[in-house]
Amino acid sequence: xxxxxxxxSTSMRDNSNSEILAKAFAQGAxxxxxxxxxxxxxxxxxxxCKGCLACQKIGRCVIQDDxxxxxxxxxxxxxxxxxxxxxxxxxxxxxxTLMDRANSLYASDYKFRDIYLLSTxxxxxxxxxxxxxxxxxxxxxxxxxxxxxGKIFAGGVNGPGEINGHPALKAxxxxxxxxx
Length: 180
Description:
Layout: E1 4-9, H1 17-31, E2 35-40, H2 54-58, H3 67-76, E3 79-85, H4 93-101, E4 114-121, H5 130-141, E5 147-155, H6 167-177
Parallel strand pairs: 1-2, 1-3, 3-4, 4-5
Helix pairs in contact: 1-6
């Protein structure tokens, strides 16, 4: 049975390594027969959460920007894939801001169950993505029907497009293809 896969690319850079990794995942998920949508935050306007919690009462954020439509796409997705560059051993600020702004999903009848993390960094050492994984797991913990299903980290890539030829691209394609 086909699943609705939503990929959220959070890098602001053109030809970013994390977005190239996300595209490989998307190709695999599509090859497996899934409906795949990729949203890049590059040209989106997403303000910081005000912490007013109005979203818990009215079911959507009161801030009128691109986060509203993205949150609706997240609510309807079966699978959410976050793609982020690692900055200072943590997810991008754009990713964290969107997570905060998707707070309206907490009280909703969201469909997503499986969450994936794709990340890239200049550093290659073990655990470089640990902060991002920890932060994402904190978000997932608030959605009791969701789980971190998988992650791929590509280290040693810094400049735009340096990921081309990296073994993580095949791993991302294969992981996407396993979604059924």
